[in-house]
């Protein structure tokens, strides 16, 4: 839920916010930037609402960050906000990716380009870790979710069961239990 005294952004403002996030972020750190922008800086969403939206975005098919942008846009400005947020996170970054790809093909023979990419990857890992730690601090410690996490880990890492079938099976059980408890 947004703060009552904070005006909601327009679709154009959402487009510009997401374009800036998409153009200034690398790798998996985008959700961390979104948390900072919409929860901590602008106070448009509570941390709980943001993390609930992130859970929804991760459960849906497609790119998590794009799903999250659509969810935030819809939450703050309806359908027009969802469309503007999607366009903002995808289009400017896609244009830059094509330009960078062309430039990288030209400079890929130089060692400095590989060093720069290693640095960008390290920054993205750090942002993803910070987001994961923020989410982990807020999750209530209950036995069933911990058991689901452990069962998924054992099934995939130890028993080498296929990830798709493991997530479908254990995930369905987890959703059914959560629904029953609600």
From TrEMBL:
Example of a GO MF term: chromate transmembrane transporter activity
Chief localisation class: membrane
InterPro entries per the UniProt record, alphabetical: CHR_Transporter, Chromate_transpt
A GO-annotated cellular component: plasma membrane
Membrane topology (UniProt): Multi-pass membrane protein
Transmembrane segments annotated in the record for this chain: 12-35, 86-107, 119-136, 143-163
Any Pfam family: Chromate_transp
Keywords, in A-Z order: Cell membrane, Membrane, Transmembrane, Transmembrane helix
Localization, UniProt: Cell membrane
Entry superkingdom: Bacteria
Similarity-based family: Belongs to the chromate ion transporter (CHR) (TC 2.A.51) family.
Name the record gives this protein: Chromate transporter
Lineage of origin: Bacteria, Pseudomonadati, Pseudomonadota, Alphaproteobacteria, Hyphomicrobiales
């Amino acid at each position: 839920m947004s703060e009552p005294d904070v005006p909601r952004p327009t679709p154009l403002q959402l487009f510009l916010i997401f374009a800036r996030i998409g153009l200034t972020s690398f790798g998996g750190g985008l959700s961390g930037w979104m948390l900072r922008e919409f929860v901590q800086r602008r106070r448009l969403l509570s941390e709980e609402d943001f993390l609930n939206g992130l859970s929804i975005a991760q459960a849906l098919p497609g790119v998590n960050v794009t799903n999250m942008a659509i969810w935030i846009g819809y939450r703050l400005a309806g359908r027009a906000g969802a469309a503007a947020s999607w366009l903002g996170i995808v289009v400017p970054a896609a244009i830059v990716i094509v330009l960078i790809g062309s430039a990288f093909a030209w400079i890929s023979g130089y060692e400095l380009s590989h060093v720069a990419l290693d640095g960008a990857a390290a920054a993205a890992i750090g942002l993803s870790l910070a987001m994961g730690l923020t989410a982990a601090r807020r999750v209530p410690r209950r036995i069933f979710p911990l058991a689901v996490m452990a069962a998924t880990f054992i099934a995939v890492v130890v028993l080498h069961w296929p990830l798709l079938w493991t997530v479908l099976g254990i995930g369905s059980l987890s959703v059914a239990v959560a629904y029953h408890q609600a």
